[in-house]
Design goal:
5 helices
């Protein structure tokens, strides 16, 4: 679903097209990931045709996809969205050799 919306953004020729950051924020993804999809669209016309075959995405489809993702996250099937920070090493806890 997100790929379809990213393709929709990429192919938009309207002068009021939102920036990559604004579009990614609305989708709940990073703008870096959105911009990584663009070269894939440019080099793989088969992927573009496959995504276009589904037609324009609708708000209902996006809501269903978000709900599905939420259920997957609750079941532990997705990685955490937070970066894990390694614990700080306590001074003096290292073995002196």
């Amino acid at each position: 679903m997100v790929r379809r919306l990213a393709l929709w953004w990429w192919t938009c020729r309207d002068s009021s097209r939102p920036s990559a950051r604004a579009w990614a924020k609305q989708l709940g993804i990073t703008h870096v990931w959105l911009l990584k999809l663009v070269p894939k669209f440019e080099t793989d016309p088969g992927e573009v045709r496959r995504l276009q075959a589904y037609g324009y995405p609708t708000p209902e489809q996006l809501d269903r996809a978000k709900e599905y993702t939420k259920r997957m996250r609750n079941r532990g099937e997705l990685r955490s969205t937070r970066r894990r920070i390694p614990p700080a090493i306590e001074p003096g806890s290292q073995a002196d050799t």
